[in-house]
C-alpha cells in the first residue's frame, strides 16, 4: 500500500470543499428563485385585491 502524499490529500479536500460550495449555492439559488416567484405572485394578488 503506497503512502498518500500530503499534496494529494490537500487537492482532494479542496476539490471536495469546492463541490460542496457549488452544491450549496445551487440549492440556495433554486430556493431563492422559488421564493422570488412566490413573492411576485403574492404581490400580484395584493394588487388585484386593492
From TrEMBL:
Organism annotation: Concaveplana rufolineata
Keyword Membrane (UniProt): yes
Gene (name only): ATP8
Transmembrane regions: 6-31
Protein name as it appears in the record: ATP synthase F0 subunit 8
Keywords of the record: Membrane, Mitochondrion, Transmembrane, Transmembrane helix
Keyword Membrane: yes
Amino acid at each position: 500500500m503506497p503512502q498518500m502524499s500530503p499534496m494529494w490529500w490537500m487537492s482532494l479536500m479542496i476539490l471536495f470543499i469546492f463541490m460542496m460550495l457549488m452544491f450549496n449555492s445551487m440549492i440556495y439559488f433554486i430556493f431563492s428563485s422559488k421564493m422570488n416567484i412566490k413573492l411576485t405572485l403574492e404581490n400580484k394578488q395584493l394588487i388585484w385585491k386593492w
